[in-house]
Amino acid sequence: MASAFDIEEIYPDDGEHSLRLPRRQAGNSPQGLAVTLLADYTLWTRAALPSAAIVALLTETGVTTAGARTAISRLARRGVLERSRQGRHSSYRLSRAAAANLSAGGNWILTSTTATAWDGCWTIVAFSLPQDLTARRRALRGQLRWLGYAPLYDGLWVSPHDLTPPARAQLEQLAPGAVTVFRGREVALDVAGRRAPVEAWDVDGIGRHYQEFLRRWTPLLPRVRSGQVEGAAAVRARTEVMETFRCFPTLDPQLPVVLLPQGWLRQPARELFAAVYDGLAAPAEEHVRAVVGRFSDTARSGVRAHTTADLLAGVRGDDAGGIHGDQDGPACR
């Protein structure tokens, strides 16, 4: 079974706001960290931050100065960042497409880790593509992963959720004439070797990821609540908890609790994430403002941390620097 951590993009592509976000890598990549930092503190406003301030914040996370500058440059070439100049000084802000994509992605992270009712039916996607169409096969499999599917067999992927219209359109575009979709209940066979649909996921492995997440972050929570995590440490911890938790919607795409082991840790992990992420919002924002203020008095006013409640409501900066609800933004998936 392929690991969900191998998926190339941080967030699923949105058809209306298509752009190439950084590839997922083992560990934290400079580009990924830069995107997370800018999203966490400027998604509301799409504020332009001095490049020197972005570099300074990235170096506090362990990225080298050269690596930070390269990451910013590459993100601008990808269309994730927009560059502006004032004399010899450059500033960067999230592009409108990136802000919309990241807003949808943040909402997706939280809604996808919320338990929902299940009607007992499975959606089955069967496809057949020639072996020589390697790139198309990889793209189709990657998109199916982002849509919450897993391979029960090589060319047969399953999900406990219905196929949404946006997902249907994406599959038609990626593999026209090569995909068939069904939805129905499993007919259990009383035979040895029967494979249940939920076995398309490594349930035990997902459980271990939840356990590791809880082990890593539970000891920090009392210090967060007592205000002992401040400055650069608050920014680093908030960035890391987001970088880690964002993997769970793909690992565990709202798998029906009735099919999972008793005491499934999805909800405790989600609650812990929210407590750490929201609890560090104020001290992290204060530090980011201070760092940005060393390079620009005006840019610091555009720094604003959002919470998990904001992500659920839908936040997206526009060209006027405003914030809008999700009804005007891209569809969540």
UniProtKB/TrEMBL annotation:
It comes from the Bacteria. Residues 31-96 form the Transcriptional repressor PaaX-like N-terminal domain. InterPro entries: PaaX-like_central, PaaX-like_N, PaaX_C, PaaX_trns_reg, WH-like_DNA-bd_sf. Residues 116-188 form the Transcriptional repressor PaaX-like central Cas2-like domain. Residues 201-289 form the Transcriptional repressor PaaX-like C-terminal domain. PANTHER family: PHENYLACETIC ACID REGULATOR-RELATED TRANSCRIPTIONAL REPRESSOR, TRANSCRIPTIONAL REPRESSOR PAAX. This is PaaX family transcriptional regulator C-terminal domain-containing protein. It comes from Micromonospora rubida.
